[in-house]
Design a protein that fits this description.
There is one protein chain. This protein has helices spanning 7-18, 49-56, 81-96, 109-113, 118-121, 147-151, 155-169; strands at 40-45, 63-68, 100-105, 132-137, 140-145. The chain has a single domain (7-169), classed as Glutaredoxin, CATH 3.40.30.10. It is built from seven helices and five strands. It starts with 6 loop residues before the first helix and ends in a 6-residue tail after the last helix. 37% of the residues lie in helices and 17% in strands. It has a five-stranded mixed beta sheet, sandwiched between helices. A hairpin with a 2-residue loop joins β4 and β5. α1 packs parallel to α2 (49-56) and α3 crosses α7. It is an alpha/beta fold. The protein is globular, with a radius of gyration of 15 Å.
Amino acid sequence: MGRRLSRTKLLALVVVAALGVGALRLRSTRAPASVPKAALVLRANLDQHAEALKALSKSQAPQYVYFSADIDPASGQPWCPDCARSLHAAEEEVVGAGGTLLLVFVGDRDTWRNPKHPLRMDPDLRVTGLPTMMRWGAGGKLGEVGAELEKAGTPEAAREVIRDFIERTKGIEAL
């Protein structure tokens, strides 16, 4: 999977995967053999997030959304150090729990700092900090963790926050 996908093809793959046409991995890392086939990691940028959230809502697996800073091309890591500490843990823990994770990359530092950023203004999301992780369902946001992830000073601490969040939100469904 060394080849990069265009935005249009990526969005099409997200929609196809969420509709249950097949268990599709958009990331080259393999899930452990014990993980149910529904476990997926999907990715979307700021322009794709609304359609990707609609597609995610159709997934039969527990759904999570993780909002992250864009990847810095120079370092290969998110420009936000808190995101860099927790991004991989979010992927691994959600997949390990048999869930579907949508990674939404919010933009570069200047884009995110804009007080009128679309994710800050969206009445259903109201993302105020990075990283933010949400439990998602057909009706939208079912739970959220953000400040705890920001405060987690090590990757291990971030992983523990994510594990706890997944455990706390297990079985929560839209009313």
